[in-house]
Design goal:
Layout (H helix, E strand, L loop, with lengths): L2 H35 L18 H10 L1 H4 L3 H17 L1 E4 L6 H12 L15 E5 L18 E3 L7 E5 H9 L7 H11 L18 H16 L14 H14 L1 H7 L1 H11 L38
Parallel strand pairs: 1-2, 2-4
Antiparallel strand pairs: 3-4
Helix pairs in contact: 2-5, 4-5, 5-7, 7-9, 9-10, 10-11
Length: 313
């Protein structure tokens, strides 16, 4: 072997040796990145503002608009508020042909927090923006198509990382608390489903246990009976696919949990495992009237002061 060919051989094997370690470094770097991002607070902040404190005025809005929050004990309300702050600091909320108020933002954040409230360290890895439209839209995001009426969508392709919601439907979902429909919660359950990388109608945390086969069998039996005219208390849209079955029954679970437990006990138990919570402990079996708030009422923010001396101003 000549000196030149020997040198080429040595350089070749040296190149292979270096590239192997370079590839390993890339793989381990990617693994470290994924696991570091799973910790709450590590997601990149793309929001316009950074929030640290939860103003009393926001509590007034949540007490008025979000029944789930209103019925939480004080210590869990604090956790709910922390989750909203985290959401605001990691997700940007924008409007298209509509203004976005703090009430809109709080309803969006509540829609995100409620389905994952059973998982304290949760964050939505596949979400960067929530976009509010004034009303319904079509799949091309236009408002004037009377033949297509979409109120919420998880984006893909060029819209990856975005959730699009009709603002009017978002508000309706929280104002009509027993119709078993809430478009905000619906779309964020899709994102919860997507956490394992695919939206398939199998909740992420059922995948880690022995509940997948019972869940799939339950979907099959329930949708079959829905097509036969039974189970009419479940929105028929849930029978169109196992993906929508999860979101439709998830809305039912969070809006009318006592009725779901009564009518569909097996479904209720599996959803309790999927979401790691029992909303019958939170949501009352009957709709309680909102307390009337007068000038001399105790302020609902928990300050102990009269309303006129606290958040009224």
């Amino acid at each position: 072997m000549s000196l030149l060919s020997g040198a080429v051989t040595v350089l070749f094997f040296l190149y292979i040796y270096v590239m192997e370690y370079f590839a390993l470094a890339i793989i381990f770097g990617a693994i470290i990145l994924v696991f570091s991002q799973r910790k709450k607070g590590k997601k990149e902040n793309i929001a316009d503002d950074t929030y640290e404190n939860f103003p009393n005025s926001w509590r007034i809005i949540l007490e008025d608009k979000v029944e789930y929050y209103r019925n939480l004990p004080a210590e869990k309300k604090n956790l709910f508020e922390d989750d909203i702050i985290h959401f605001f600091n990691t997700v940007k909320i924008e409007g298209v042909k509509t203004d976005v108020t703090i009430t809109d933002k709080l309803l969006v954040a509540s829609s995100a927090v409620i389905p994952v409230f059973g998982f304290p360290e949760w964050q939505y890895h596949f979400l960067q923006y929530v976009i509010l439209y004034p009303g319904a839209f079509d799949r091309n995001f236009k408002f004037d198509n009377k033949s297509e009426y979409i109120t919420g969508m998880v984006g893909d392709g060029i819209m990856e990382g975005r959730v699009i919601l009709s603002k009017s439907s978002l508000h309706l979902g929280f104002s009509n608390v027993r119709d078993k429909r809430n478009v905000g919660i619906h779309e964020f359950i899709h994102l919860l489903d997507k956490q394992d990388g695919v939206i398939d109608g199998v909740p992420t945390f059922l995948n880690e246990h022995e509940y997948v086969l019972p869940w799939m069998e339950l979907i099959r039996s329930k949708t079959k009976k829905m097509f036969e005219g039974e189970h009419q208390d479940i929105n028929f849209y849930g029978a169109t696919s196992q993906i929508e079955f999860l979101t439709v029954t998830g809305e039912y679970f969070f809006e009318h949990p006592h009725l779901l437990e009564k009518n569909h006990p097996e479904l209720f138990q599996l959803l309790s495992k999927a979401f790691n919570q029992d909303p019958t402990d939170i949501i009352s079996n009957t709709v309680k009237p909102k307390p009337k708030l007068g000038r001399n009422s105790e302020c609902p923010c928990g300050s102990g002061k009269k309303y006129k001396n606290c958040c009224m101003n």
